[in-house]
Amino acid sequence: MNKFIYIVLFSLTFLTCNSNKKRDSNANASIQDTITIQNLQKSFSTKNDKEFLRQFPKDFDQFYDYFGWDSVNDKPQELYEECNDYLDYWFDLINNEKYKEHERNIIGICNKGHWEADGVNYFQDKALSYIKEKKKYYLINDLEDKDARSVLFFLFDSPHPQFDADFASHFYFIRYQKDQWMLTNTIYKTQSSNEEDAFMYVCDVKQSIDISDSASLKKRKSIPEENDRDMVCTKIKSETNQTDPIGEDDISGEFELIKGYTLFIGSEDDEILSANIIIEKLSNTDYGYYSAQKIKGIRPIESQGALRNYKNAYYELSICDNDPDKGISEENFINGIYLHNQVIIKKKGDKLAMIWYGSNFRKYLLYKKLKPETNYSIYLENALDKSKEYYKNFLIEYEKAINYNKNKLKIEQKSFNDGWVTKHNHKGDGISFENTIYYQDPYQDGKFVKQDSIFLKQLYE
Question: Beta 431-437 vs 253-264: how paired, if at all?
Fold first, then answer.
């Protein structure tokens, strides 16, 4: 074989090797360019700063998928346990001047975010500290109002939000002043009474509160006292003598259980095997219901009553009883409605999620609307018949209570600790007495924050 042939063969071999190396190089580059949790883990373990910043989540959903809680499978996401280490490293890097452009990803993760325990809460604390201590207020100040509000309410969200629990019914005005985000004023709206000629008070209350200071937020001024409203508030005509329903759709209908369970503090959980609930609309704000539930090992449980949609939330309605010690005779005592415990209700399409609670438990019920050709659960037919009869009797008392004698009973709903209390003023037999009725904290001191989040996410699946 002559030299020319050797040269040609060598050249072909060299070109083939180079071609393969280029393909391998391109393939590796393609893999490296992909944003994956594996690449994030690799860059973290090798402390490849630039690649770690490129791979780190840029929005809340991706952050939650890496570091949050998998609600579908009820288990931690892959980096749940290591979240704090990853966040410490990330915040250290963006604090470096050469990586400054990545600090805007704080806002990307905050926008449309919501409070969760563990990793999300740790990110929230780190983000707040970073913006406040490094004077990075411009990150929020440069945003459109809608995005700025979303970011702010995530940053100051918690199991018990300091100032957004009643955001839908009150209007908060926030301004960026002297390197601080300030709650400048609050506009409260409340109805003067439940009478037909009722009007709406609109009260503009000056605040001047630094919303990053939780101690200051506790000093937020509430709606003026009733006796002062005529002097300091504007009066406008009320469209109705009852509060309009909030953004939820009409919740009436016949529903069957998808999934249900009761969580007890310090005890085993109870799975609810089957359940039906029938809800009917009684008025612009009130719904009546009767239901039956089957729990393993015990007979079906019946329940019935009414719910009221009041000021952005649903409440169980109860009817007050006479107190003989007050001196009003039974025949002259007027029963009235009051707000009992809140029922957390969310509706999405044909699905209805309900969370009920008591002193040591929380009951979760996810329903779907019953199709016309579908029957009630065979295990619940008798219980539902009983519940319906009890419900009919309840409605008789309910009608009496809502059509009460206004000369003998005055009913008010008063704001209290970001919630409401019902105030009854009874008159009869020449005697009058006042009774204020409170309901239990619907958040139960944050004992069920994670469970609530996991449950409610099923509504949107």
Answer: unpaired
For residue 437, the SS3 value is strand
- Laid out side by side, the sheet with 431-437 consists of 409-416, 419-428, 431-437
The count of residues in the chain is 461
Residue 18 — pLDDT band, cuts 50, 70, 90? very low
| Predicted structure pTM score | 0.50
327 or 165, which is more confident: 327
Residue 314 burial by CB count (10 A; 0-12/13-18/19+): exposed, middle or buried? buried
Task: Give the closest residue to 354 by CA, choosing from 446, 417, 264, 272.
Answer: 272
Q: Which residue has the higher pLDDT, 426 or 83?
A: 83
User: In the structure, what pLDDT confidence band is assigned to residue 107 with cuts at 50, 70 and 90?
Assistant: very high
Which tens digits make up the pLDDT trace of 324-374?
A: 777 778 777 788 888 888 899 988 889 999 999 887 889 999 999 988 777
DSSP helix/strand/coil, 288: strand
Residue 23 is classified by DSSP as H
SS3 breakdown of the chain: % helix, strand, coil, rounded to 5?
Answer: 35, 30, 35
- Residue 357 CB burial class (10 angstroms; 0-12, 13-18, ≥19): buried
Q: By the 8 A CB rule, do 192 and 199 touch? A: yes
Q: Report the amino acid identity of residue 133.
A: E
CB atoms within 10 A of CB 128: 15
All residues at 6 or more sequence positions from 125 whose CB lies less than 8 Å from its CB, including other chains: none
Distance CA 168, CA 177 (A): 24
> Which of the two residues, 152 and 258, has the higher pLDDT score?
258
Start-end ranges of CATH 2.40.128.120 in the chain? 253-460
**Does residue 216 contact residue 184 with C-beta atoms inside 8 Å?**
no
Please work out, in degrees rounded to the nearest 5, the angle formed at the alpha carbon of residue 51 by the alpha carbons of 50 and 54. 90
What's the CATH fold of domain 253-460? Lipocalin (2.40.128)
